[in-house]
Automatic annotation (TrEMBL):
Organism expressing this protein natively: Zopfia rhizophila CBS 207.26
Molecular function as annotated in GO: zinc ion binding
Keywords: Metal-binding, Zinc, Zinc-finger
Protein name: SET domain-containing protein
Every SET domain range: 13-268
Organismal lineage: Eukaryota, Fungi, Dikarya, Ascomycota, Pezizomycotina
Cellular-component GO terms for this entry: nucleus
Superkingdom to which the source organism belongs: Eukaryota
SUPFAM superfamilies with a match to the protein in the record: HIT/MYND zinc finger-like, SET domain
Residues in MYND-type domain copies: 67-120
């Protein structure tokens, strides 16, 4: 790989692929590979950075506003937290296929040469048809291989990834795989090259080995499949993560990793309770997770309730009983709490919370989503069962911030950010340069800055509060942490640095020659005031 040689010159190769002890079958035999550190790494370093994943497929909603080559998402956030996207950028539809859009002639040309020229004409007659992203990804893989556009080494590594066909046959989903594979063959015009079974295997491989394509601020854009990235195994207590800098994915370390230690990322939200993590991994990736965290079972913070199940208010016991009677909660393994009657009630209450969460996540209209999120947050809060950092209570809060911002209710979004900053981020992401902690702090900083620019900070600032200094304090934090979370040369870290420079210049102009002293004296007090704002809202 040409990109490999530029890293760690003088050091041994940064990673290697070998048999992993975590992937074992029922007989205890190692049946899978993983990625291992080629030398020692500190936290906040990158292990691999590559030019782009082998194949990417944008989700249907993102096809209209995202460049299919460099993945620049052109819709700006109202609070400016996506400053890494060049200003004024727009995407234009490919005149041939009318499906993909590009932000420049250069991007269109790169995609064309990478393989689009072999599919563009064939996609034209089906331009109005919605094609699932996994089918589009499998189509691209087959087309590129048919035309000799995938390197032998990549193809060989890709084909080594497990298809999990036997699991699909066992869980009754194979018929669906075959159907999708038929579409993949037909739309890609590769029936002459690849057998039906081979295509079914490749489609299944995409389903079980793809990762989420994300922006540098972790908004999901689609899926990516890559032979190297696809070899990284999962842990609910990962020592690494994947971050994208435009089209360039990098594996970065969350914790120090010693030479020959296995590198793990998390395929799911590792802040979820034990049973939910297990069930999600089993359903989507067909394995029973035995990572160090799962070995501790439901004993960690993610599984703590505020009170014991038998202490639940009678009202909630009654509601739970009604739910158990009405809903089919028999197969409720993702919410498993325990065997007693009260624990089963607790599982039903939790089921309802996650059901509400999944429903609001599917809701496109922000006003409607806000109503659903508020119902969900109230459910968690008023039940008296949820610690503030237990899921999905914490995840509801992330969504209320996004939706309140998108309808222009910045004061509430801000107060929720303050609560999250004070109570949730340090608990859920104890590593200070955890990429989600950094990105959410950045979102808070930009929201604060926006409010600082509004007359009277839209009525939220109280005596003594200086919103621009609070924003500055948060930007300083992100500036230092983003070097570790995203890399000093990443577009994200550079856009944060640029914002920091602009804010520094403005504050100097406003405060005069003693600006530095004035700021360093005032910031600790502003931090205290910001922390107090974390208690403004009841929930
Ligand atoms: C993206 S692949 C990772 C590479 C894979 N080990 C291989 O050799 O092809 C995902 C698959 O790896 C296995 N796997 C990943 N993490 C695992 C874990 N923590 N425990 C058991 N199996 C795991 C599962 O079979 C899963 O479906």
């Amino acid at each position: 790989m040409e990109e490999e040689s530029k890293y760690h010159s003088g050091l041994s190769f940064p990673f290697y692929i070998a048999r992993s002890e975590i992937c074992v079958n029922a007989a205890g035999e190692c049946i899978g590979d993983g990625i291992f550190a080629g030398h020692d790494f500190d936290a906040g370093e990158h292990i691999i950075a590559m030019k782009r994943p082998l194949v990417v497929s944008l989700s249907t909603e993102r096809l209209v506003d995202t460049c299919a080559n460099c993945f620049a998402w052109t819709e700006g956030t109202s609070i400016g937290s996506r400053l890494y996207v060049p200003e004024g950028i727009k995407v234009q539809t490919c005149a041939g296929c009318k499906r993909f859009r590009y932000c420049s002639k250069q991007c269109q040309k790169e995609a064309w040469n990478r393989g689009h020229k072999h599919e563009c004409k064939n996609l034209r007659p089906i331009s109005n048809r919605e094609i699932p992203k996994a089918v589009l990804a499998a189509m691209e893989i087959l087309i590129r291989q048919k035309h000799g556009l995938i390197r032998d080494k990549d193809w060989e590594m890709l084909c080594r990834l497990d298809t999990h066909i036997d699991d699909f046959k066992r869980n009754g989903k194979y018929a669906e795989i075959e159907l999708m594979a038929m579409g993949t063959s037909q739309f890609s015009w590769t029936q002459d090259t690849f057998s039906k079974d081979f295509v079914a295997g490749m489609y299944a491989r995409v389903l079980t080995n793809s990762l989420t394509l994300i922006t540098p601020t972790f908004d999901p854009l689609g899926i990516m499949i890559d032979p190297t990235l696809g070899h990284i195994n999962h842990s609910c207590d990962p020592n690494a993560y994947i971050v994208l800098d435009g089209p360039e994915p990098a594996i970065r370390t969350l914790k120090p990793i010693n030479k020959d230690e296995e590198v793990y990322i998390s395929y799911i939200d590792p802040t979820n309770p034990y049973a939910r993590r297990q069930s999600e991994l089993k359903a989507r990736w067909s394995f029973t997770c035995k990572c160090t965290k799962c070995q501790k079972g439901a004993t960690l913070d993610e599984d703590k309730w505020l009170i014991r199940s038998e202490k639940m208010a009678q009202k909630y016991k009654d509601l739970a009983d009604a739910m158990i009677e009405l809903e089919d909660l028999g197969d409720n393994e993702a919410n498993y709490v325990g065997e007693s009657e009260d624990e089963k009630r607790l599982a039903a209450i939790q089921w309802k919370a996650f059901d509400m969460y999944e429903d609001e996540q599917q809701t496109v209209d922000p006003q409607e989503a806000i109503k659903k999120i508020e119902d969900g947050m109230r459910w968690c809060y008023q039940s008296g069962l949820w610690p503030i950092n237990r899921q999905p209570y914490a995840a509801f809060r992330d969504d209320i911030i996004v939706n309140m911002s998108s309808v222009g209710n910045y004061p509430i979004a801000f107060a929720q950010c303050a609560k999250r900053y004070k109570y949730i981020l340090p608990k859920l992401y104890p590593e200070i340069a955890h990429p989600l902690r950094v990105v959410q702090t950045w979102q808070t900083a930009m929201l604060t800055l926006y409010l600082a620019s509004e007359e009277g900070a839209m009525g939220i600032a109280q005596a003594g509060v200086d919103m621009s200094l609070i924003a500055y304090m948060l930007v300083i934090e992100v500036k230092f942490m983003s070097r570790l979370s995203h890399g000093a040369n990443s577009r994200f870290a550079k856009s944060v640095s640029k914002k920091f420079d602009e804010m520094t210049a403005e504050l100097h102009a406003k405060l005069g020659p003693n600006a530095e002293d004035l700021m360093s004296n005032a910031i600790p007090r502003q931090r205290e005031l910001f922390m107090e704002m974390g208690d403004w809202l009841q929930y």
